[in-house]
Amino acid sequence: MAIMDLLNINLSKIPSDGMKLEITLDGDFFTALDQETIKGGNVKVNLNIREHSGEVYTLKFVIQGEVIVECDRCLDDLALVVDAEETIKLTYNDESDSTADDIKFIPKNTNMYDASWDVYEIVELSLPIQRTHQVGECNEDMLSRICYENDECLDE
Hints:
Blueprint: E1 8-10, E2 19-26, H1 27-32, E3 40-52, E4 56-70, E5 77-92, E6 104-106, E7 112-114, H2 116-126, H3 140-145
Parallel strand pairs: 5-6
Antiparallel strand pairs: 1-7, 2-3, 3-4, 4-5
């Protein structure tokens, strides 16, 4: 099974008591998404899917692991812990102007839902805004290149 197919969910085959998926995603997953923020990593995704009345689906994600991003200060690889939970609701609606904030709409003529970008967004939003190594752990050569003329460095 291709890495991108792991999170492709057939909503018409969700059992009445729900479905649970446990998936481990590595750097190949993040590379296949063709995004530039996350360079690699290894995360475990636990996904519980339930159908409620009226073709409303609840997808509960629990994501734990580690991802590799670029340090904002020295540009070297930086490993960050991921520990995130998120619930997403889906329903069918062909109206493109539907504006409910707490629900995603999918076309009525499809049974497949790709949760890959949901996983990526949950991981991305769980990361800190400032992504830097601990003081003293940045690439010294790079830091020496970005010191100010008065010897005030960004790592101090």
